[in-house]
Design brief:
With 145 residues, the protein is mainly alpha-helical. It has helices at 4-23, 30-44, 51-58, 62-74, 96-117, 122-138; strands spanning 49-50, 78-82, 89-94. The model has no long low-confidence stretch (mean pLDDT 86).
């Protein structure tokens, strides 16, 4: 019997691949879409955006965040300039192109989730969610909801 690691990696890969395939038509990767969604949420909540905050939110290194931001800017999804407070913060504006994508990409993630949970009973879905939340807590990932 294969261990947990095999299934966790396989599910993560499968979800990322499915999302990437669906997002290709928008010219954005799953990781860029996730970061764009986090930026949108931070703007909506009035938070100042820093590379460190984005790095913590998405769970990747600062240089990786910078690379993703560069790609989002180059593709016309964001506009950025140095923040008012200090040089580490950024003023990021989401373009109309990005807003259209944000409104549509929720469907991409919902479709992937539905594919993952296909054939589960409501009781199994609840138990699975509880286990996923506990696994995230165990490795120090807080619930973003």
């Amino acid at each position: 019997m294969d261990g947990y690691n095999y299934y966790i990696r396989s599910i993560a890969y499968g979800m990322r691949y499915t999302n990437d395939q669906s997002l290709t038509t928008y010219g954005i990767t799953n990781q860029q879409a996730r970061l764009l969604g986090d930026i949108h949420d931070m703007i909506e909540s009035g938070k100042e955006i820093s590379r460190k905050a984005l790095s913590k939110e998405i769970g990747i290194s600062g240089p990786s965040v910078t690379s993703l931001l560069n790609g989002l800017e180059k593709s016309g999804f964001i506009l950025r300039q140095q923040g008012d407070e200090d040089g580490r913060t950024m003023q990021i504006r989401i373009t109309a192109k990005a807003m259209k994508l944000i409104n549509e990409m929720e469907n991409v993630f919902v479709e992937t989730e539905q594919k993952l949970l296909q054939g589960f009973t409501d009781e199994q879905k609840k138990a699975f969610l509880d286990m996923l939340q506990k696994a995230c807590e165990n490795i120090g990932i807080s619930n973003g909801a």
